[in-house]
């Protein structure tokens, strides 16, 4: 009895394969590249291959993420809020608050003592401070996305970044580079600005510990460090934060098998 | 704005221009929510009144949403509610042109889109030239500036009713009653037409009769399952209607009540699992969208009631029309401190057996959304979930259905999971 969860996001798509004992047999992460259906099919079959199970073994498939409604082979769709909550609570059973920063949105999810969603908030109107924002900044700085965290840890001086609009922040960063500021200091400033924005969002739902961070941005140690400093708490980071939504979807798939 | 004056300003020209533009735009779609004869009648009445405002012989008043219309019907004046016109223009597919026009004339995109759309419609010369304009100081300060601007551009008189914040003050009713009398005297001078007090009493009586049916209808809506969808009911927005005091609206609300009563009494549906029941705060997006269809059909929940249909005022005394209208204006829950409105919301939650609240916060609205934080805290303590969704009632350029869908669906999943 196999359950599969698919998380089709704006930037990346993930699949998680669970067996009937809730053991994660495999997971796969790929770029969506604007084609939800193709990305979902790819991660689905790849994750089955990795788990060494066949399509016929799969009893249920649940899709989440912005592309969830376009996946015809999924038997149910559930929002990423519910899925991230379930996935994070599964990995860290005492969790009360989840910070999820994905490709285009950021969320704060508050759980009750039983792991059920008690409240949530999402960014409105603008995708500043999300994965896409960091991609643009990394490009403007001429550094790899994966190096942002390490570079920011070398910062000697905090440079406040005033604009959080992706377009304006890019031009602000270019100006700072031209003025001679170091890349490390600028990136650190960017991370602090993101943290400030996320903390404001989170305060709307009254943060309670333990806190888990999910989504691709949780892989950026600079953003995590900035958030921990702002919130004065320790944040739990899953081994693979990007697959937590798909894990939640797989748990729901299993529930309805 | 100069174009309004530069162009030929007669109403026939204005109507011709509007209809020509509407015909060029996509075909009008009938709302999929209108299942009742009453809803068709209401839509027809609204359209007829709007078209009547283009008749050169009509005396026309621009009014904002809570300016009492009983006075206008008593004086045979056609009220044009500028906010409702924006929703109508959305049906004519000319809203975006109006919004663009306002922005091109230095009205910021951050201003409420009802205001921008009205300004744009005036600039484009789509609106029938009014004989005068009348506005209340509540809900929106923005409206008073809009009406002032329009009065200058059309070169017509503008009357303002100042609604006191302190609605409990012993002098509040008297203060407003006097203003209403003075306003009518000013309108008499402007139109060179005397008010017939018997007609005003009759308009109050008709308003009472329409109110009677709507209150009875609201009682029927407490039934589970909900006898009517919120997607259909929200378009009545009874508290904002510009038809109170007309003979026709009595028929519309009577039909509405009787049709729903018939549904309740003749429902042959087998008892079904109780659906999640939602209380809707504020308005909805008026451009073509499937928000309510998604909520009520795809998510299978009931929008059991909408605050814009809560009849907050009591029966009026036809022998004391001005005093009664003053009391009606002061009874409006948003007038005064926010605690008053919260009290109304809490009562509606109990009355309609509500599981959660969806609050559609219109972008650019500075009047009605700033108290939502306190409301949310109070509801949290009571265990009633509320989601605030930001969106625009008029400007479709700000609409992202995928974003709204995720928020609403997650909110409903949260309630369902709680009830599991």
Verbal overview:
The complex is a heterodimer of chains A (257) and B (420). With 257 residues, chain A is an alpha/beta fold. Chain A is built from eight helices and ten strands. Chain A folds into two domains: 1-92 and 239-257, ATPase, nucleotide binding domain (Nucleotidyltransferase, domain 5, 2-Layer Sandwich), CATH 3.30.420.40; 96-237, ATPase, nucleotide binding domain (Nucleotidyltransferase, domain 5). Chain A has a five-stranded mixed beta sheet. A five-stranded mixed beta sheet of chain A has the order 8-7-6-9-10, with helices on both faces. In chain A, a hairpin with a 3-residue loop joins β1 and β2. The mean pLDDT of chain A is 92. Chain B contains 17 helices and eight strands. Chain B is α/β, with parallel strands linked by helices. Chain B is globular and about 65 Å long. In chain B, 51% of the residues lie in helices and 10% in strands. A four-stranded parallel beta sheet of chain B has the order 2-1-3-4, with helices on both faces. A four-stranded parallel beta sheet of chain B has the order 6-5-7-8, sandwiched between helices. In chain B, α3 (37-52) runs antiparallel to α12 and α10 (197-220) packs parallel to α12. The interface between A and B is medium-sized, with 14 and 14 residues.
Please write out the topology.
The complex is a heterodimer of chains A (257) and B (420).
Chain A: E1 2-8, E2 12-18, E3 24-31, H1 36-51, E4 58-64, E5 76-77, H2 80-91, E6 97-101, E7 106-111, E8 117-122, H3 131-141, H4 148-152, H5 166-179, H6 183-203, E9 211-214, H7 221-231, E10 235-236, H8 244-255
Parallel strand pairs in A: 1-4, 4-5, 6-9, 9-10
Antiparallel strand pairs in A: 1-2, 2-3, 6-7, 7-8
Chain B: H1 2-6, H2 11-24, H3 37-52, E1 59-63, H4 70-74, E2 77-81, H5 82-91, H6 95-104, H7 113-123, E3 132-136, H8 141-154, E4 157-161, H9 172-191, H10 197-220, H11 230-233, H12 247-265, E5 277-281, H13 291-298, E6 302-306, H14 321-330, H15 338-351, E7 356-362, H16 372-382, E8 386-391, H17 401-419
Parallel strand pairs in B: 1-2, 1-3, 3-4, 5-6, 5-7, 7-8
Helix pairs in contact in B: 3-12, 5-7, 6-7, 7-8, 9-14, 10-12
């Amino acid at each position: 009895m196999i359950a599969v969860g698919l998380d089709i996001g704006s930037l990346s798509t993930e699949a998680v394969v669970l067996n009937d004992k809730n053991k994660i047999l495999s997971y796969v992460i790929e770029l969506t590249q604007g084609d939800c259906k193709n990305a979902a099919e790819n991660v689905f079959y790849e994750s089955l291959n990795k788990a060494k199970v066949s399509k016929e073994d799969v009893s249920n498939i649940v899709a989440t993420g912005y592309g969830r409604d376009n996946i015809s082979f999924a038997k149910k769709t559930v929002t990423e809020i519910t899925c991230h909550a379930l996935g994070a609570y599964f990995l860290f059973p005492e969790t009360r608050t989840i910070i999820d920063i994905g490709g285009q949105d950021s969320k704060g999810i508050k759980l009750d003592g039983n792991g059920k969603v008690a409240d949530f908030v999402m960014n409105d109107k603008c995708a500043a401070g999300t994965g896409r924002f960091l991609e643009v900044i990394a490009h403007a700085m001429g550094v790899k996305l994966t190096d942002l965290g390490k570079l920011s840890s070398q910062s000697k001086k905090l440079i406040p970044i005033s604009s959080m609009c992706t377009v304006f922040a890019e031009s602000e960063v270019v100006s700072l580079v031209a003025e001679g500021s170091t890349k490390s200091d600028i990136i650190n400033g960017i991370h602090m600005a993101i943290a400030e924005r996320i903390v404001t969002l989170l305060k709307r739902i009254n943060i309670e510990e333990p806190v888990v961070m999910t989504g691709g941005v949780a892989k950026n140690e600079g953003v995590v460090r900035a958030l921990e400093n702002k919130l004065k708490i320790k944040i739990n980071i899953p081994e693979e934060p990007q697959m937590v939504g798909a894990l939640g979807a797989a748990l729901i798939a299993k529930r309805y098998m | 704005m100069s174009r309004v004056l530069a162009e030929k300003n007669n109403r026939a020209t204005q109507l011709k221009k509007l209809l020509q533009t509407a015909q060029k735009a996509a075909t009008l779609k009938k709302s999929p929510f209108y299942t009742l004869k009453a809803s068709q009648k209401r839509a027809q009445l609204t359209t007829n009144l709007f078209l009547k405002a283009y008749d050169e012989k009509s005396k026309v008043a621009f009014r904002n949403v809570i300016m009492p219309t009983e006075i206008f019907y008593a004086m045979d004046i056609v009220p044009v509610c500028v906010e409702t016109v924006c929703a109508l223009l959305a049906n004519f597919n000319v809203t975006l042109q109006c919004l663009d026009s306002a922005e091109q004339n230095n009205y910021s995109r951050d201003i409420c889109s009802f205001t921008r759309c009205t300004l744009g419609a005036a600039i484009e010369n789509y609106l029938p030239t009014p004989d005068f304009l009348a506005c209340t100081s509540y809900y929106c300060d923005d409206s008073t500036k809009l009406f002032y601007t329009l009065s200058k551009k059309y070169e017509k008189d503008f009357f303002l009713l100042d609604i006191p914040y302190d609605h409990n003050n012993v002098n509040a009713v008297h203060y407003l009653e006097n203003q209403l009398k003075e306003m009518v005297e000013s309108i008499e001078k402007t139109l060179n037409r005397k008010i017939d007090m018997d007609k005003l009493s009759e308009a109050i009586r008709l308003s009472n009769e329409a109110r009677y049916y709507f209150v009875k209808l609201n009682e029927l809506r407490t039934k589970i399952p909900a006898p009517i969808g919120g997607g259909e009911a929200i378009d009545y927005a009874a508290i904002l209607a510009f038809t109170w005091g007309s003979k026709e609206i009595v028929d519309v609300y009577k039909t509405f009540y009787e049709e729903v009563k018939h549904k309740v009494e003749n429902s042959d549906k087998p008892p079904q699992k109780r659906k999640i029941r939602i209380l809707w705060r504020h308005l909805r997006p008026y451009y073509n969208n499937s928000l309510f269809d998604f909520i009520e059909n795809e998510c299978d929940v009931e929008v059991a009631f909408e605050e814009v249909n809560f009849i907050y005022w009591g029966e009026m005394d036809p022998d004391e029309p001005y005093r009664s209208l003053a009391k009606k204006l002061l009874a409006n829950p948003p007038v005064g401190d926010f605690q008053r409105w919260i009290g109304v919301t809490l009562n509606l939650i109990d009355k309609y057996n509500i599981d959660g609240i969806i609050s559609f916060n219109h972008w650019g609205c500075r009047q009605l959304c700033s108290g939502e934080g306190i409301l949310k805290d109070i509801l949290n303590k009571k265990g009633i979930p509320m989601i605030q969704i930001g969106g625009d009632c008029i400007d479709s350029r700000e609409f992202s259905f995928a974003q709204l869908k995720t928020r609403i669906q997650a909110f409903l999943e949260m309630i369902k999971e709680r009830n599991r």
